[in-house]
Amino acid sequence: MSKVRLFNPDSLSPPVGFSHAAGANGFVWLGGQIASDSSGTVLHPGDMSSQFRVAIDNVRRALEASGCEADDVVKITYYVTDLPAYRRALKPIGEAYREVMGKHFPAATLVGVSGLFDPEAMIEIECVAVEGRSTE
Questions:
Q1: Rounded mean pLDDT of 124-132?
Q2: Span 6-16, mean pLDDT?
Q3: Is the pTM of this model over 0.85?
Q4: One CATH from 2.60.40.420, 1.10.10.10, 3.50.50.60, 3.30.1330.40 for 5-130
Q5: Angle, vertex CA 62, rays to CA 59 and CA 64, nearest 5
């Protein structure tokens, strides 16, 4: 029996060749979450702050599916295709972040990238959490 648990909530895009979250040895790793709906369609093309809002909410959904919550996150990484757009949207991005993460600010990295798998996606967020609530 595998010691790795995989989590793929129906509220996120259908996983094809990946899982949204995986847990093992007291940790949960979230695969990158973008601004997609449950069908996998990227929402709000060209709108960084709206895409951030959807992506961070998808992080919340994946965390909940794994039995974690925002306070359990120890590391978060942002991959952004348009750094100037991200900088311009800092205020609404901060508001969306606090709606999901509250005043919890784990270790973080922001990386500018030339593109993501879905060319409409402007941001992808992944994180690592310690297992919080019981996953039983």
A1: 94
A2: 95
A3: yes
A4: 3.30.1330.40
A5: 105
